[in-house]
Amino acid sequence: MNQGRLLTFPAVPWKFESVENGNNSRVLLELYDREQTPLKRYLAMLGVDPETARDVVQESFLKLHEHLLGGGDQGNLRAWLYRVVHNNARNRQTSFGARNTGRIDDLPPSANPVARDESPEQKLLGQEREMRMRQAMDQLSDAQRACLVLRTQGLKYREIAASLDLSVSTVGENVQRGLERLREML
Amino acid sequence: MKCQLLTFDLLVRAMDHELSPAEMEWVPAHIAGCSECSHERESIANVSQNIETVVNSAPVIEYPGDRAQWVVVKPIRHAPDRVMRRFGWGMAIAATLAIGIIIAPKPRTLPAERRPITEQPLAAVSNAIEVDGETFVALPYSNPDLPTSAPRIVQMQVPVSSLADIGLGLEQVTSEVSNQDRTVLADVLLGADGQPLGVHVVSWD
């Protein structure tokens, strides 16, 4: 039985104690190693092209460096980082999604290594399922898609709320409505 | 949702560990015992996993230099306000002392190259003494604390070799015959104790 991977998300203790110890360079690097790929994926799911996403992420880590230098709030750096990435990308594009750079279903097929053990039929079915999901996600509102993607990255509702400047209850509504719509479409 | 007790909202929040303490007391137990809710949870979990598959397949670009930029970044210091709060007074006193040491007058030897006096204005010498508009080169080992309010200035012939000893080179360095016996006319500033404080060469032939 599929228990759902969302149930097993590790409760990552995003409390960067080493920041308190002044070892900020190491924290910056740890955060980069852990978050730069999820951040780029998040932007890709918002319709940002990979090259722009790379630039946005690099810029955002520079801002994080300055933020730490300036003694900024270190309470939840991951949520802070997602908010900066989101705003930086929004500044480059008037609106996210298919209208600007491309649709999610234009993304290349998954290169998931698990697929190597699958039969050609299973692989084809998996690719079709993935394509249908991409098309369905394209139909969601920007806020619903952003909330669902951040949820997939393991962020708590309060972290998503901080990242997107929404209330926690609004995040909950977006997650639920997004999931309902996806289930209906699929 | 077919179950009349649990809403879709509660089910999703239960999956995301977002229930309130009051909800935690009954929702998980209900889901575990309700076949309809368990079925719904499985359905939502499948959708969630499909979303995750799509997200994880999103293309990303990463150049080797991207990470290196953060490897070489300089250590970040504490915030200035925090540093000032901890060490503010100590730092201020240390800075004041450092500035005082830097700007305090101190003996300075003249450049090693021996230049004619006409190319070496005495006013430019940092350890000069100004008395009645006349500039004297301070002699080493003289007591700078002695008053110069009632100075005496005596004009005398001073050996060039003596001037060279205090850093006033009046002769080009040469391997030829030395001029140890040569003298120049100079004003010598005498302090209150009668000891010479400074010298001012008046003429150079």
Protein architecture, described:
- The complex is a heterodimer of chains A (186) and B (205).
- Chain A is mostly helical.
- Chain A has helices spanning 17-20, 24-45, 50-69, 77-92, 120-138, 142-152, 157-164, 168-185.
- Chain A has one domain (14-185): PhyR, sigma-like (SL) domain (Butyryl-CoA Dehydrogenase, subunit A, domain 3).
- Chain B is of the alpha+beta class and 205 residues long.
- Chain B has 3 domains: 8-56, no CATH class; 64-103, no CATH class; 117-203, no CATH class.
- Chain B has helices spanning 8-15, 21-24, 27-33, 35-56, 64-71, 80-103, 160-165; strands at 128-131, 134-138, 152-159, 183-190, 196-203.
- In chain B, strands 1-2-5-4-3 form a 5-stranded antiparallel β-sheet.
- In chain B, a hairpin with a 5-residue loop joins strand 4 and strand 5 (196-203).
- The longest helix of chain B has 24 residues, at 80-103.
- Chain B is rod-shaped and about 120 Å long.
- The relative contact order of chain B is 0.09.
- Classes of the chains: A mainly alpha (186), B alpha+beta (205).
- At the A-B interface, helix 2, helix 3, helix 5, helix 6 and helix 8 of A face helix 1, helix 4, helix 5 and helix 6 of B.
Structure summarized in a few sentences:
By secondary structure, chain A is mostly helical.
Secondary structure: elements and pairs:
The complex is a heterodimer of chains A (186) and B (205).
Chain A: H1 17-20, H2 24-45, H3 50-69, H4 77-92, H5 120-138, H6 142-152, H7 157-164, H8 168-185
Helix pairs in contact in A: 2-3, 2-4, 3-4, 4-7, 6-8, 7-8
Chain B: H1 8-15, H2 21-24, H3 27-33, H4 35-56, H5 64-71, H6 80-103, E1 128-131, E2 134-138, E3 152-159, H7 160-165, E4 183-190, E5 196-203
Antiparallel strand pairs in B: 1-2, 2-5, 3-4, 4-5
Helix pairs in contact in B: 3-4
